[in-house]
Design a protein that fits this description.
With about 80 residues, the protein is mainly α. The protein has one domain. It is about 60% helix and about 0% strand. α1 crosses α4 and α2 packs across α5. The two termini are about 15 Å apart.
């Protein structure tokens, strides 16, 4: 998956987050797309910049990536 596609998905998940759940959606993005993020060939910072969300969410995406090996996303959130 290309960086632009990942950035678009991140933006969509961020924009569609319920009130006070933006960080949760950013974590979920990191969990769901951990493998793609690690293999896309671009730094996470670039993906956040392309998405247009605050660079302050960079640690939150990183947390999601780290959590990916420990958790599974429920079917209703796939």
């Amino acid at each position: 998956m290309k960086a632009a596609q990942l950035a678009a998905i991140l933006r969509q998940m961020y924009d569609s987050a319920k009130r006070n759940e933006a960080a949760c959606q950013v974590h979920l993005f990191g969990i769901k797309y951990a493998r793609e993020l690690q293999n896309c060939g671009r730094p996470l910072k670039d993906i956040l910049l392309l998405s247009g969300i605050s660079i302050g969410y960079l640690p939150e995406v990183s947390k999601g990536i780290k959590l990916a090996k420990y958790v599974e996303v429920k079917k209703e959130f796939l």
